[in-house]
Amino acid sequence: MQVKKLILVFSILLLALSLPLMATGAKEILEEEKLSETVNSVDVATPNYATVDKTDLIQAFNYAYSYMTVQSLYSQGISINGAYWLRAIDDAENMSDTSAFLLDTSEMESAISSYTTDYYQAGLKDDAGAILSNEELANLSAPETLLEKFSYAYSLIYTAQLKYMNGLDISAPEFKQGAADALYNVANPLMTTDECQSAVENYAAKLDEEYEEYLKVVSEENLKAAEEFLATNKGNEEMIELPSGDLMEIVSEDEELGATPSETDSVIVDYDLYLLDGSEIDSGTDVTFDLQNLIPGFIEAVTNMKVGQECYVYIHPDYGYGEQNTGTIPPQSLLVFRIYLKGIATPEVTE
To answer: CA nearest 334: which of 351, 320, 349?
Structure first.
């Protein structure tokens, strides 16, 4: 719980920083990331935090993605203190032990805000500083300068968001090595530009495959649950079975009921939409819908109601969104609507 709370705070802090590389969904990050103009390499001591097996999908991705991230920041004139950037990667790997953090969340927020206005927008620049060993990184004292504080805060938030919110397979040693090779502009990085691009693309393809498999499993489970629910409740005396097999339950009626809409009508409704597990997806009050533009299950339900009735309607996926994954409604979900039919809209008369 503490880790999730911290990540939520971190995501808010990152959004407050008007710099590039804002983390979104995992797939979007990988698709949008581009290898920016490479800063000219210089001859410096080579940082050594990990060996990278370029044939290993995860190791190659970690090196490549971190390398590309730093290059992108550099190409936009953003200065980074290398030591504090790298130390933050290690700290993000161990979110359960926040006592090791060199800054608390309020200090990170302040560092990000101050860097944006007092350093980045002011056009200030500095180099990455000295290359430190793992032992030296572990023994770093709290950052003192604005650049050190920003570098630590941004790196920790960014790495943690990739790992814990976006679910990427972040491995600190290779992630550090990729960042270090870019931070210190080593003459011979462990992977070429083409290899970095390929590594990220290959990892993105892996995510796509895993996501498609996940959706397949979710789809099968949801369809089974929907059909079991409808079959179990079909004989309930409080339920009305509609021609499609969907179920409707009248929960209240006004003293005087009105007309029944046709499929070509527009209707005025209050509604709530839930999934079978009770999750609320959508709601509205005094909403006017053109029935011809809605899902079949909603149309069938409303055209079997009278104005003044309030009903719960249980819609099979075939008459809802089926195999579509809308982002908020998983594929093959049973839809549960509460609908209060308030009126039939009068068509506007065109003179």
So the answer is: 320
